[in-house]
Every structure is written in structure tokens, then in C-alpha cells.
Amino acid sequence: MTRTLRTTVVKWVLLVLISTSVLFPLAWMAIAGFKGKTEVLSSPFQFFPEVWNVQNYIDIVQDPQFSQSMAVTFLGAAIFTVLSLAVNSMAAYALARLDFSFKRFWWIYCILPMFVPMMAILLTSFVVVTELGMLDTLAVLIIPGVASSIQMFFIRQFYLGMPMALEEAARIDGCNRFQIFTKIFVPQSSAVFVVVGIGSFLAYWNAYVWPILTITDPNLMQIMQFLGTFRSERGNEWGLLMAGSTLAALPTILLLLLFQRFVVAGVRISGIK
User: Fold this and answer.
1) Total structural domains within the chain
2) In a structure prediction context, what are the per-residue pLDDT tens digits for the chain, which is 273 residues long?
3) Where are the alpha helices (DSSP H) in the chain?
4) Is 100 contained in some domain?
5) Where residue 155 sits, what CATH number does that domain have?
């Protein structure tokens, strides 16, 4: 066996092992949704159900609270993603291309939260939104997390690598700073925006602790909050819970599959220079 062939075999073996380890939990969760109440945690372990039953998926889809939670979470995630892209991209442009007083100080100030664990400021954040009267509103799930130091850093790294000639040519043509940002930088940022946008969408969609603290209105219950409540109230219905979890994971999986090309491109072009 030649060295090239051995390298190829090793690569494929590693690829299969990694893919299996990643996909196995998802596959088990989806298949468990077809099992009865006692089959999911049965011993000895059984991957496939004895009888395939779609009733769990039908029941969870027909649950009005589940459908409403999915719709409200999707709406909130969409708004959160758009606002995150707008706020963080404008901040990144200012920090990358503009000169102003105390710029270094403000840059350190903006990225400092990157090093602060969320749990460390959870209670203080809760006190702030309580005093502002934001509890049980969609705003409490969106506004506190819109500005992200990680996303500012990521977009800023990309903007630092854009040629100054483009900006100078636009200024000669009479464009102001905002027009330069919207007509030159934004159109060139599609790959980076996809990466940041997916990150924002996933962060909102998968949030659990913050919605539990701030939302008690059933009409605003988020999907992860619904699944957690479902688990505590109807913990013995594992097949139904697995069906709901599978359907809750589908939007994020489809999102990644649709934009995977942009994700790879965004990671490649936005590396630290």
C-alpha cells in the first residue's frame, strides 16, 4: 500500500468515525420519536423500535402550545438575527475604519464582555430588565443580547482586511461614511454575515436559562422552555419528548445545510490577520 493510499484510507476512516459520532445522537433522537413510552429507555438498549409509530409526531404537532412556541421562537430569532447583524456590523465598521478619540479604550470596552461568563452577570441582568419593566415581553429576549463582542470582533477582522482603495474611491465619488458602509462594505460581507447570522439564530433558538427567568406568559414561551416544561410535567412520555426535540432541531439543521457553503467561506476569509 502506497503512502498516498494509506493517507486517503486514514482520512476516510477518521471522517466516518467523526460523522458517526456527530450523527448518532441525532439519528437516535429522531428514531426514538417513533417508539412507545417504555421503549425509549428500555434495557437492553434497542436502537430501532419494535413497531414504527408516527403517532408521537402527530400528537406533538397537534399540540397548540408546541406550535405556538415554535412560531414565537422563530419570530424572535429572526428579529434578533437582523438586529444583531445591524448593530454589530456598524460597530465593527466604526472600530475598524474610523478614527475617533479614545478608540483603543472603546475597543477594549466592547470586547471585554467576551471574557465574562454569562452566569456571572445573569442575576444583575435580571434585576436590570425587571426594573425596566421588560419581563414577559419579546423585547427581554432580544434586546439584552443584540450587541455581541464576539460578533463585533469577527466582523471587524474582516473589515480590517478590505482594501482602503475601495473606501477612498467612494469618498472621491461623494459618498459619506454611512453610504460607504451600506454600498461597499455590506455587499462584500455576505459570507461573514451568514456566519454571524447563523450564530445569532442558534444562540436565540437554543436559549433556555434566560427565557426560564424572564418569561412566564404561555403565549411567549420559547421552544426550549416548552421542552423543559414538558419534560418536568410529562417526563414518562419519552417518545413524545423525542419527537418534539427532533422537530425543534430541524430548523437549525436545515439552516446549516442551506448555508454551509457560506459558513466555510466566512470562516476562511475572517481569520485573524
Assistant:
1) 1
2) 577 777 888 888 888 888 888 888 888 889 888 887 778 777 777 778 888 888 889 989 998 999 999 999 999 999 999 999 999 999 999 999 888 888 889 999 888 888 888 888 888 999 999 999 999 999 999 999 999 999 999 899 888 888 888 888 888 888 888 898 988 899 888 888 988 899 899 999 999 999 999 999 989 999 999 998 887 777 678 888 889 999 999 998 888 888 877 766 655 554 444
3) 3-32, 55-62, 64-97, 103-111, 122-131, 139-142, 149-160, 164-172, 177-180, 190-205, 209-214, 223-233, 238-258, 260-269
4) yes
5) 1.10.3720.10
